[in-house]
Structure formats: C-alpha cells, structure tokens
Amino acid sequence: MATIRKRGDRWQVQVRRKGFGAASKSFRVLKDAEAWARHMEVQADRCDLPPDPKTLDSIRFADLVRRYRDSVSPRKRGHESERYILTAFLAHPISCKPLSQLRTEDFALYRDQRLRTIKAVSLKRQLAIIHDLFEIARYEWGLPIRENPLDKLNLEFRPERRERRLRLGELEKLIAAARCRRNPLIAPIILFAVATGMRWGEILAIEWEHIDFKDRILLIPRTKNGHSRTIPLTRTAIQILQSLPGTEGDHVFPITANAFRLAWERVKRQAGIEDLRFHDLRHEAISRFFEAGLNVPEVALISGHRDPRMLFRYTHPLQKQIAVKLEAFA
Description:
Oligomer: single chain
CATH class of the largest domain: Mainly Alpha
Largest sheet: 3 strands, antiparallel
Number of helices: 13
Structural class: mainly alpha
C-alpha cells in the first residue's frame, strides 16, 4: 500500500510490502507522486520490489549451508565429499553468524585458522564450494546479499607440482597387501589404475555395458571435467576385467567410494608406504604411456587432458631417452 504525505513544499511517497524493503521518493507535483505510487504498487504486486535487507538478520550462515548441502550438492558428482566438507563447516563458530553480520574478515580469520592444519590448495577447493553457495543464494534463492564475501578473500598458494611415481617393488607390496583384504576387488582396482591411468571415481563408475571386449575399448560416459571419452584398453587391462565376475548392467567394481578409500589407506599402511596417493597411480600410468612411445595427442586421448600443456609434467621420464637420441645424433 502506498502512502502519500506532504512535507513542506514536497510530496513524499512511501510503498511498503511485507517481505520487501520500503521504497520512498519525494516529488514537487502531486500528480507525479501519485503516478510513481501506482507504478510501485504494480511492481509490488509482481513481487519486483527489492527484498528487505533485514531478513538477513534472521538467517544464519548455517541455514544456507544446510540448504545447499541438502538441495544443491546431491546434484553433483562429488556430492559425498562435498557433503562431508559442508557438514564440517556447521561445527565451526562462523556458521552461527547471521548473514547480516557475515563479512570477508570472518572468512579471512577462518582461512588463517584452517591453514594451520590443511594445505592452501585444499582450503581453496573447500572455499570454492562456499563461494558457489553464496552465488546461488544471491541469484537463485533471492536473498538480499549485496556481494559475495569470498570475492575479495586472498588465498595465494603455490600449486603443488607432484611427480610421485611408484618406486621399485612398491606395486608388488601394494598388491600383496591388497590381496590380504577381505574385499577381492582392491587389488584389481589398483592394477587397473596403473594399466589405464583412470581416476578412482571413473574406475568405480565403470559398468559392463561400457566395455567393448571385441574392439578393446572402454567408454567413460562422464569424467571429472564433464566430458565423455573412449579409451583403448591394453591386454593387461582386458585380462583384469575378464578375471572379474559380473553381469551386464552391473558395475564392474561394486564398491562404494568411502569403502574403497578406507581400504586403500589400510593397504598402504600394511605395505609400509606412506607418501603415496591413489592419484599417483594415474601419474605412473601416463608416464608409462610416454615411455612406451605414445605421443602427446595419443596420451591425451587416453588420459582425457583437454589442455596438452598439462601433459608436460608427465614427460620428465623421457629426458634420459632424449639424451640417448641426442648422443646418437652427435
């Protein structure tokens, strides 16, 4: 409802609607005031008035985290790990703050505290989820948040250039330890990773219908970057698959991500290997592809790297071969 009052020589109009901020304006002519009032009332009927910023006083950051965790995260491929990260946020005092009081300084303090226990690259990955949370809250949930508090947060770090490869005898130790586990799939998964260079999430998602044993190719419908790819399989990879029991339509490796993660950690401890990540097996496989004589486009076809420059980090084993070629040329 619009209210028009005369104050001095001007007409003041104020439009209020529950759930939205009050809009007001002054005019010298009454007809202009009445016309603007009618226009704003139409906007109010269409719910086009700006939302009331006072609504942020009653919404805590924890409310956004829960809503995002329960309604947005389940639509993502990595929803299990993302749910774990968001639930951990709820245990921090920052989650108790109302949105009206939440500032970049609060996340700067959170950043400094977390950097004492985790690496900057891990923290940046976690805060990217919170950044997306605020973007959705602003543009999809209609909350009157003026700016994303993480836009101005400084999080500088040196990218970790990891070049860890399997050392002599480590693969044998891993397989021996894996075969001692009750789940018989652990050892085949490790061997398949070394044979194909696939990520563990991609391996666990393989279904029998994705495999063409005749042409020795495997379809990966959805990868980390959202694109599908088809890769050739070596005889070793085919032998691993043929050694597994399964039926058409079922997953080749029917094990949950969390169960495999726990099993992988136990296998490493039993094998006495501490500084190895499962992703290092992908690095090992891609390095072996280059050592086998494959060129960059061929390796990119298998690994799924869309930027060939990313593959240069895997070419360091070729330095000795290049030296031998140069020596022969000389």
